[in-house]
Specification:
Keywords (chain B): Electron transport, Transport
Number of helices of chain B: 9
Structural class of chain B: alpha/beta
Largest interface: A-B, 78 and 96 residues
Shape of chain B: globular
Number of strands of chain A: 13
Strand content of chain B: 25-35%
Distance between the termini of chain B: 49 Å
Strand order of the largest sheet of chain A: 9-8-7-10-6-1-4-5-11
Oligomer: heterodimer
Largest sheet of chain B: 7 strands, parallel
Strand order of the largest sheet of chain B: 5-9-4-1-2-3-10
Helix content of chain A: 25-40%
Mean pLDDT of chain A: 96
Shape of chain A: globular
Radius of gyration of chain A: 21 Å
Strand content of chain A: 25-35%
Bound molecules: flavin-adenine dinucleotide
Family (chain B): Belongs to the ETF alpha-subunit/FixB family.
Largest sheet of chain A: 9 strands, mixed
Protein name (chain B): Electron transfer flavoprotein subunit alpha/FixB family protein
Keywords (chain A): Electron transport, Transport
Helix content of chain B: 25-40%
Pfam families (chain B): ETF (PF01012), ETF_alpha (PF00766)
C-alpha cells in the first residue's frame, strides 16, 4: 500500500507570535520551526500501518521553500521512506491543495493523510480540497484509522460524539489525537534519513484565492482581579453582577 | 444573487452555532442589499426551521431525506451545492464546525469559491474588495483576509457573533430535493456513537466551561469540577496531560492540539496556563483561574483569579452558585 503524508512546517508551539513591520507576514526571526503537531499523528499512523502490513511505502510531501528541509528530514528519520518538496511559498490552502492533488494524481497513492489543520493558519481546509480535486472521499477529522485490504475503518469526530465510517481506498483523511502516539526520531533513523531520497519539484502555476491583508495581535488583557481564597464565593457574585456572564 | 446559510440541526433543533451563522448571513445579505436563504442539514422540524425568521432568514430549503439525519460528507456537499446553485448564492455562510469545515472545503472546489474559516467578525465590503477577520496562530493572532472571486464561503467561529432575535418573525420553509443517489451516501457512517456528556452540555457549543488540569491530582476528584459545572449549567474540559493519562476522555482536551473553545466564561482549575493550553482558550470572553501557585502563567491571561487550593475553593464556588440560583 502506498501512503502519502502531507506535512507543514510551523512555528514551534511555544513561539511568541510577531509580525513583520508591515504586518503582512509572520516574523520568522529567531523562531524554531517544527512539523505541524497534527501532522505527526498522520505520519506515525501511516508508518504503523505500513509496518503492520509488512510492506508498502510512506512518502512525505511538503509544499515549502528550502528552509523546510530539516523537518522533511525529520519525517524521514521518524520512518518515512522518501520525500517530495514542492518548491513554493505556500500561499493559501487552495494553492497548497492544488500542489498536493497534482502530485497525488499520478502517484498511485492509496491513502493520503494529513493533520486536521496547521497550527499557524488553522485553515482546516486542505483535506477537503484535495479530496474534491481528486474526486475521492475525505474523512475529517479522524481519531482512529484501521485498514483491512482496501477498506478503511475510521472514527470521525462530530460535535458530541463520533461516527464510524468505512471508505475504500483511495481516500484522504485528516488526523488528530488519539489516533496514535506520535513517534520521535531515534539515532538510527537520523542516520538513515540522510540517504533517503528527497525530490524537489517546481509548483504548478496555479493561483491562490485569498490574501492576508494584515495580521494583528489580540488586545492585551486588563490584568487579573484577585479574590481572596477565604471569600471565594464573592467571585460568583462578581461573575453575575460585574462580568455578567452567569 | 443571494446569501445562503447552512444551518445544522440536531434532534429537530437548530444548533446554537447555526443561529449565529444565520444571523451572520442575514446581516451580510443586508449589507449587499439582498436576502438570506438557509439550507438545513441534520434532523429538522418545520416549526424550528420557520423560527429562523428571528435571525433574519426569509426562506429555508429543507430536504427531508431521512439518511441526511447523520453527517455524510458526499451527500451534504451535493445538497448544499445544489441549494447554492438554485439560489444563485454568491456568499455561503456555515459554522466553523467539523461539519462546516468538511463540507466547506469540498464546496470551495466544486463551486470555485474562495474560502475563509475561523471567521470572527462581519466582513468589510468596500467596492470590489471583501475582507474578513479570522483567528490565526491558534488564537494567538488575527488575520484580515481578502477573499477573491465572485463566490465566497465563510465559516464562522462559534460564540464570535451575537445571534439576532427578532421576535415573531418567521421564515418560509420550502421542500427541496437535491436528487441524491445511493452513491452520494457512499461515506455514510456505519454507526454513530454519542458521548456521555457531563450534564448533557456539549463542550464545543458551551457558553460556560469548567476545566481541570493536573492540579486536580486524579480522576477521583473530578466530582468537584462536575458539581460546579452542573450548578452553573456548564460543560467540562481538561488540559492535555489529563486526557493523555486517561483521567478524562480526549474530547474534553482543549488547547492548541485539542478543541478550541471561546465560551463567555472559562474557569481553569489547577491548570498552569502553558502557551499551548492558552492557545485553545484565550478567546474566551472571561477567564477565571484557580491555582495555588501565584506565579502560574495563567494568571496573566485571566480576568479573575483565586490563589488557592482547588480542593478548598471549588466547593465554595459551587455553594455560592447554588445560593445565587
Ligand atoms: C506540541 C505540544 C502541544 C500541546 N498541546 C496542548 C493542548 O492542546 N492543551 C494543553 O492543555 N496542553 C498542551 N500541551 C502541553 C502543555 O505544554 C502543558 O504541559 C499542559 O497544558 C500542562 O497541563 P496542566 O496545566 O494541567 O499541568 P501542570 O503543568 O502540571 O500544571 C498543574 C497546575 O496545577 C497547580 N496545582 C497543583 N495542585 C493544585 C491545587 N491543589 N490547587 C490549585 N492548583 C494546583 C500547579 O500550581 C500547576 O500550575 C502541548 C505541548 C506540546 C509540546
Amino acid at each position: 500500500m502506498k501512503f502519502l503524508v502531507c506535512i507543514s512546517n510551523v512555528p514551534d508551539t511555544t513561539t511568541k507570535i510577531a509580525f513583520t513591520p508591515d504586518n503582512k507576514e509572520f516574523n520568522k526571526a529567531g523562531v524554531q520551526f517544527v512539523i505541524n503537531p497534527w501532522d505527526e499523528y498522520a505520519l506515525t499512523r501511516a508508518i504503523e500501518l505500513k509496518e503492520a502490513q509488512g510492506g508498502g511505502t510512506v512518502t512525505v510531501l511538503n509544499v515549502g521553500e528550502a528552509d523546510t528541509e530539516p523537518n522533511i528530514r525529520k519525517a524521514l528519520a521518524i520512518g518515512a521512506d522518501d520525500a517530495i518538496r514542492v518548491n513554493a511559498h505556500p500561499k493559501d490552502a487552495f494553492f497548497v491543495a492544488q500542489q498536493i492533488a497534482s502530485i497525488a494524481k499520478d502517484g498511485g497513492y492509496d491513502v493520503i493523510l494529513m493533520g486536521k489543520e496547521s497550527i499557524d493558519y488553522n485553515g482546516f481546509q486542505v483535506h477537503g480540497m484535495v479530496g474534491e480535486l481528486l474526486g475521492i472521499p475525505t474523512v475529517a477529522p479522524a481519531m482512529k484509522l484501521d485498514l483491512s485490504g482496501n477498506t478503511a475503518t475510521l472514527e470521525r469526530e462530530i460535535e458530541g460524539g463520533k461516527e464510524i465510517v468505512e471508505v475504500n481506498t483511495p481516500f484522504v483523511a485528516s488526523c488528530q489525537q488519539p489516533m496514535c502516539e506520535p513517534r520521535i526520531p531515534n539515532m538510527r533513523g537520523i542516520m538513515t534519513a540522510r540517504t533517503k531520497p528527497l525530490k524537489v519539484v517546481e509548483a504548478t502555476a496555479d493561483a491562490a484565492r485569498t490574501e492576508v491583508a494584515a495580521f494583528a495581535l489580540p488586545p492585551q488583557k486588563q490584568g487579573v482581579k484577585l479574590i481572596p481564597a477565604e471569600s471565594a464565593g464573592d467571585l460568583i457574585r462578581l461573575l453575575r453582577n460585574e462580568a455578567k456572564v452567569i | 444573487m443571494s446569501v445562503l446559510v447552512v444551518v445544522e440541526c440536531d434532534g429537530g433543533e437548530v444548533k446554537k452555532s447555526s443561529l449565529e451563522v444565520a444571523s451572520y448571513g442575514s446581516q451580510v445579505a443586508q449589507m449587499l442589499g439582498t436576502t438570506a436563504t438557509a439550507v438545513a442539514v441534520g434532523e429538522a422540524t418545520e416549526a424550528n426551521l420557520a423560527q429562523l425568521g428571528e435571525q433574519g432568514i426569509t426562506k429555508v430549503l429543507h430536504d427531508a431525506e431521512p439518511r441526511l439525519k447523520d453527517f455524510v460528507n458526499g451527500a451534504y456537499t451535493k445538497l448544499i451545492a445544489a441549494a447554492a446553485q438554485k439560489e444563485d448564492a454568491k456568499i455561503i455562510v456555515l459554522a466553523n464546525s467539523n461539519i462546516g469545515a468538511s463540507v466547506g472545503s469540498r464546496l470551495s472546489i466544486r463551486l470555485q469559491a474562495s474560502i475563509a474559516t475561523n471567521v470572527v467578525e462581519l466582513p468589510k465590503i468596500d467596492g470590489g474588495s471583501f475582507t474578513v477577520k479570522r483567528g490565526a496562530f491558534s488564537g494567538k493572532a488575527f488575520a484580515d483576509v481578502k477573499l477573491d472571486g465572485d463566490r465566497k464561503i465563510i465559516a464562522v467561529k462559534k460564540n464570535s457573533i451575537e445571534a439576532l432575535h427578532e421576535a415573531g418573525k418567521t421564515a418560509q420553509v420550502e421542500a427541496f430535493s437535491a436528487q441524491l443517489s445511493d452513491a452520494d451516501f457512499a461515506d455514510a457512517p456505519k454507526q454513530v456513537v454519542m458521548q456521555d456528556q457531563a450534564g448533557g452540555i456539549l463542550l464545543p457549543e458551551a457558553d460556560l466551561v469548567v476545566s481541570g488540569g493536573r492540579g486536580m491530582k486524579g480522576p477521583e476528584n473530578w466530582n468537584l469540577i462536575e458539581e460546579l459545572a452542573k450548578a452553573l449549567g456548564a460543560a467540562t474540559a481538561c488540559s492535555k496531560p489529563v486526557s493523555d493519562v486517561d483521567w478524562r476522555p480526549h474530547h474534553e482536551h482543549v488547547g492548541q492540539t485539542g478543541i478550541t473553545v471561546s465560551p463567555n466564561l472559562y474557569i481553569a482549575c489547577g491548570i498552569s496556563g502553558a502557551i499551548q493550553h492558552l492557545a485553545g482558550v484565550n478567546s474566551s470572553k472571561v477567564i477565571v483561574v484557580i491555582n495555588k501557585d501565584p506565579e502560574a502563567p495563567f494568571f496573566k491571561a485571566a480576568d479573575y483569579g483565586i490563589v488557592g487550593d482547588v480542593f478548598d475553593v471549588l466547593p465554595k464556588l459551587t455553594q455560592a452558585v447554588k445560593e445565587l440560583n
